[in-house]
Amino acid sequence: MAAEHGHTVVRIPPYHCQYNAVELIWAQVKGHAARNNPSPPFTATKMLDLLIKACESVTPENWASVVEKTKNLIMSDWDRDVAFDNITIRELVINVTENSSDDDSSSDGEESDDV
After folding, report:
1. Which GO terms describe its molecular function (predicted)?
2. Cα–Cα distance, 30 to 110 (Å, whole number)
3. Predicted model pTM
4. CA torsion sign, 107 to 111 to 113 to 115?
5. pLDDT digits over 62-104, tens only?
6. Which of 27, 28, 57, 115 has the fewest CB atoms within 10 Å, i.e. is most exposed?
C-alpha cells in the first residue's frame, strides 16, 4: 500500500525510539495533553478529548521538522559508526591465567609466587 502511494517503508532497529519520528510526535501530543489538563477531575473522557485536540494540533510543519531531525540523527549515527568501524584496532592479547607476567617462570610445573 505504501509503494502504491510512492512511499518506501524503511525498517528501523528495534529499541531505537530516537530514530522513529512518530515517537517525537507522540511526545508532542502527550505534552500538549498534560499542559492542558492541570486540574481535576482527571477523567478518561476529559483525557480523550485532550488527546484528540492534541492530535489535531500536530501540523505538517511539525512532521517535517521531526522527520528532518530524525533523518539527521540517523545520518550522524551512521557516519559515526562507519568511522568507528574503519578504525584499525591493534591486536590485543589478554592473559587470563593467574600469572600476569609475560615470562612464564613456572614452566616446570611449580606455582609462581608472582600472583
Report:
1. nucleic acid binding
2. 69
3. 0.57
4. positive
5. 999 999 999 999 899 888 887 777 775 555 567 788 775 655 5
6. 115
